[in-house]
Amino acid sequence: MKIKTNNIINEQYLASLIKDRDKPSLFEEEKVLKKALELKGLEPAEAAVLLNITDPSGLARLYSTANSIKNLIYGSRLVLFAPLYISNYCSNNCLYCGYRRDNTAIERKCLSIDAIKREVEIILSWGHKRILMLMGEHPGRCSFDYFLEAIQAAYSVKDSRGNSIRRINVEVPPLSDEEFGRLSGAGIGTYTVFQESYHRPTYEKMHPSGEKSDYDRRLETMSRALENGLNDVGIGALLGLYGWRFEMLALLEHARYLDSRHGVGPHTISVPRIEPASGAPLSENIPYPVSDEDFKKMVAVLRCSVPYTGIILSTREPAGLRQEVFELGVSQISAGSRTAPGGYGKSSPDNAGSGQFSLNDTRSVGEVIKSVIAQGYLPSFCTGCYRLGRVGEDFMDLAKPGQIKLHCLPNALTTLKEYLVDYADEETKQLGEKLIKESLSNIPLQGRREKTREYLKEIENGKRDLYF
Ligand code: SF4
Questions:
Q1: pLDDT tens digits, one per residue of 224-258
Q2: Which pLDDT tens digit goes with each residue over 39-79?
Q3: Which of 159, 155, 184 is nearest to 167 (CA)?
Q4: Ligand 1 proximity of 331 Cβ (cutoff 6 Å)
Q5: What is the pTM of this model?
Q6: What is the distance in A from the centroid of ligand 1 to the CA of 402?
Q7: Could you tell me if 134 and 172 are in contact, meaning their C-beta atoms sit under 8 angstroms apart?
Q8: What string of DSSP letters covers 223-273?
Q9: Which of 41, 103, 398, 439 could be stapled to 404 by a disulfide with Cβ–Cβ 3.0 to 4.6 Å?
Q10: pLDDT reported for residue 3
Q11: Ligand 1 atom closest to Cα of 79?
């Protein structure tokens, strides 16, 4: 069914909200932050009030509210994943992207099924259990059937300990209704497509040709995905193409639209900032650069506005800033990423020549985990919800009132334990065991706490894949 996309994003209305940049009064600010703590989300006009906070004490209150909301919904866990790019062929010409059709400097690859399996072996050897599989839009070179085959191939790989990938999320260009039906049968987790920019004139400028140049087709994708069998969808905007305030409020509008129309808001929201990409001149000269301070504020306002949704932070951001943003509501992070097809087989994370963009956090998975633990967060490889069918509305029913953390915490402990036993160095083992011991007492239900203790012992004795 054709969707009226003007009903999703009302540009005039959003523009009117961000026109007024007056600093909110303390009364206004506190009223909105108090409402945010009720975990029911915010209206765009309320989110716009928070966007206008500039004074250090106001920002401190905003950040601490965002941090509390994340802890109330998800607890202290940070779920880790690795992106897996299987093809960089693309028939689109997005001005900011290294995969763009007119970029002749890039080495094009569509990985063979064997090459995909080799990449998965490496990802597994680092301890990951979740991947995000991606490919460019070029049905002539890499078909949808190939993508489905790649998913099954990735699931089939087992490492020497018998571990395998337990959840594959996907990010592929908009599909037909029939293809969505087939994708839903392929055992995927979340289906993600970024709108890139919600501002129509900007979108049209940035996507001059190819299938992707159709703004409406892209914006209605998530509704079609949900109507054709998929349970969980992820949305995102590429920050830097247009004003970040507009994009943030538009993400909120999109989330609210999906929730009201389908009873399921986005499972995740991603907020990558443009990074330089070879052969994409616009990425070197960003039209609306987003400062670190604005980026932090945007993440915090997003967390206050859509409390139940996972917020994803990628390795585009440098390690130091990532650590700061963990405190503001992020709930999922990539680690050890490569953004070029075949990149995991290379010794360095440098994507020169075939990556979609450059990376700023090039630490290994082990290093990221060690620093996440040192910061007091629980690294998690959990895939429990997807495995137990807690998806779509069922997931939302648990996430919205903050019940999901009753599953997240024990699952973070069991999956961290597996990581420590199977992959960690001595120092991480010690740090991790200490954190597990301390965190056990945070499981509120005694029965669940005892069962988690039992699972931890079983994992020590060689059992794997125990979850709630
Ligand atoms: S319990 Fe569900 S929401 Fe929590 S980390 Fe696991 S899969 Fe994610």
A1: 999 999 999 999 999 999 999 999 999 999 999 99
A2: 999 999 999 999 999 999 999 999 999 999 999 999 999 99
A3: 155
A4: no
A5: 0.94
A6: 12
A7: yes
A8: HHHHHTT--EEEEEB-BTSS-HHHHHHHHHHHHHHHHHHHS---SEEE-PB
A9: 398
A10: 65
A11: 5
